[in-house]
Structures are given as C-alpha cells and as structure tokens.
Amino acid sequence: MAIVLPNLKQIIEQICSNERSLIITLPSKIQWSDYEKELRKVANYKYVMNFKVHNFPKGIHEGDKCYIVHNGYVKGWMEIVGFSEESFTCSTTNKKWNGKFIQRSGPFHYLQEKIPYKGFQGFRYFDLNEYKLEKNIK
Predict the structure, then answer these.
(1) Domain encompassing residue 128
(2) pTM above 0.90, yes or no
C-alpha cells in the first residue's frame, strides 16, 4: 500500500491556515464592563455573540481565534464557532439585525500584556506573534 505524502505547497498552506486569526474592534461607546456581561453569558458555549460582516473571511474556520480591540488595545480572544446568514433580535440591546455574521462563543482569553492596536471597522486577518515582531513588542 502506497503512502501519499503532502507536497510542500500543501504543508505551507496548512501551517498558514492554522496560524490565521481575525481581529475586530468594539466601538468605543461600548463600555468594557458591559461587554464583559455578554462575555459571561456565552462562556459556556450555550449562546453566541455575533459580529456583522459584509463578506465571510477566507481561510478562517470554526475553532480559529477572533481577537478583540477595545480603546486602543488588544484585550484578548474568543473562539470562532460558526458563520451565519440570518435575521435576529439581540437579546442584550433588543436591536434587530440582518446579514452575515461571525459567531463567537466560549470563554474569553485575556492577554496578559498590553498590546496597542488602533481601532478600525470590519475585520482583519491577524497573527499576534507576527504583529508583536513587526511592532517590536516583547
């Protein structure tokens, strides 16, 4: 029986896809203490938090990380648990939403170090270690 080994391109694509994460920004008008209340609600994977996007990210999968920027710093990350296209009413704000969403759930993983990052709209692809090297952050 022959064993099929992956070629170099497949190996590199696998490594790169494993290290890819997303980063999103919370609007500064949202107080972190209020956001933490929502984080506690989803910590056990019973509920999800949705982040509205125009298009789904490419190369990002369930189980990948989604980092959160708030007031100029990367606060930590959550697990991406799905991608949906739906309409719903937010149970926290009672606001109606429609469109494509990145779904996050599970415990929030706080970063120990303060990592500065300028806020933005939408999502970006992100690699924390690469970012720290670029910005010379220890």
Answers:
(1) 21-134
(2) no
